[in-house]
Design a protein that fits this description.
Blueprint lengths: L2 H11 L7 H12 L13 H12 L17 H16 L2
């Protein structure tokens, strides 16, 4: 499945019609740059903004660490993990 189809499938499974302006800008920046800092208000869709392009960049054949996400609190990684598991289940 190509990246565009994968994104459409994920968005559809999450009940999202389209990405917002920040998410589109973040996606382009993450694809182009090695290090990205994404600052946006709570509830603006940052999780989706950074996870969609990361999914495009990951190579299933590489077994080493390909991405490191640094988060500001203890609760936040658990929320991201729940999103990731939900998307993984929906992408199969």
């Amino acid at each position: 499945m190509n990246a565009e189809d994968q994104n459409k499938n994920i968005l559809s499974n999450l009940g999202i019609d389209s990405l917002n302006e920040m998410q589109i800008a973040a996606q382009h920046a993450i694809i182009k740059e090695q290090n990205v800092l994404l600052l946006s208000p709570t509830g603006s869709g940052k999780t989706l903004a950074f996870l969609l392009p990361i999914l495009q960049l990951l190579d299933e054949d590489i077994t080493k660490v390909q991405c490191l996400i640094v988060v500001p609190s203890r609760d936040w990684p658990f929320r991201q993990s729940r999103y990731g598991k939900r998307w993984e289940q929906n992408s199969r």
